[in-house]
Hints:
The protein is mainly beta. It has 2 domains: 4-47, no CATH class; 60-117, YopX-like domains (SH3 type barrels, Roll), CATH 2.30.30. It is built from 1 helix and 13 strands. It has one helix spanning 100-104; strands at 4-8, 13-14, 19-21, 27-32, 42-47, 53-62, 68-70, 73-77, 83-85, 87-89, 92-95, 98-99, 112-117. A 4-stranded antiparallel sheet has the order 2-1-6-7, with no helix packed on it. The chain has a 3-stranded antiparallel sheet with strand order 3-4-5, with no helix packed on it. Strands 9-8-13 form a 3-stranded antiparallel sheet, with no helix packed on it. It is elongated. The protein starts with a strand and ends in a 7-residue tail after the last strand.
Amino acid sequence: MNGFRVYDKVEGKYSSKPFFVDKEExxxxxxxxxxPESTRDxxxxxxxxxxxxxxxxxxxxxxxxxxxxxxxxxLKWTATGKTDNVIYRDGSFFCFGYPIYERKAYGFYxxxxxxxxxxxxxxx
Length: 124
C-alpha cells in the first residue's frame, strides 16, 4: 500500500491530525514527542474511533495534472466525459469497471483527472 488520508465524519472534512496505521490497518493518532531524550519521534495518544474516521488508501498513481489518486476519489475520463469513483476491493483499486493498474500501461492516466471525492461530490 501507498500513503493514505483520513476523513473525519464528525468534522465533515479530511483530518489534519497526524495518524499512523498498524499492520492490522488499525488507525491511531500520534503526537510529536516533546522529550528530547527519546529516540522515538511520536507517541500514541489515542486509538482513532473507526466509526468516526475513514481511511482512504493512496493508489500510488497520479492523474493528468499530477494529483495523487486515492480510494474514494471521483475521476473524470476526459476522452469520454465519463465519471466514476475509485474503490478498493479484493486487494486492487477499481475504476470504470477495471482494476486501474491494468489501464496504466495504456496511458490511461494522461486522460483522467481527479474532480472530487465521495464526500464532496455526490453526483458521481
